[in-house]
Design a protein that fits this description.
It is built from 6 helices and 5 strands; from the N terminus they run E-H-H-E-H-H-E-H-H-E-E. With about 130 residues, it is α/β, with parallel strands linked by helices. Strands 3-2-1-4-5 form a 5-stranded parallel beta sheet. Helix 1 packs across helix 2 and helix 5 packs across helix 6.
Amino acid sequence: MVLVDTSVWIDYFKQRNEAVETELDGLLRSGQVAVSGLILAELRRGCRAPAQVATLLAALAPLQYYEADRNTWLRAGEIISDCAQRGFALEVGDCLLAALALRENCLLFTLDRDFERIPGLKLHRARLT
């Protein structure tokens, strides 16, 4: 399973990056895509019209959904603390997604290079064509 970050979805929906589109299409066809509440909220924030909301909800409804529980939130805090001790700051939301991916032992598909700083996190990248 691959947890797909908001950065990827934005490029996908706006058709900004052919490699991302091709890669995400393949993951969607094979049923390997997961989302979380944070991703849904970030994507919903970008919808300007009711039709966009309806399209978004219909597209994401069948996907695997990962919910953050108490332990996942605590793991996110641990990641933030560990990164701060190593001299760099990460956003809480990014650390929550990392904690979810670590908990589920899945890959995280993101365009955000900050995730490379999180030990043990497995990243999925678009294959360049």
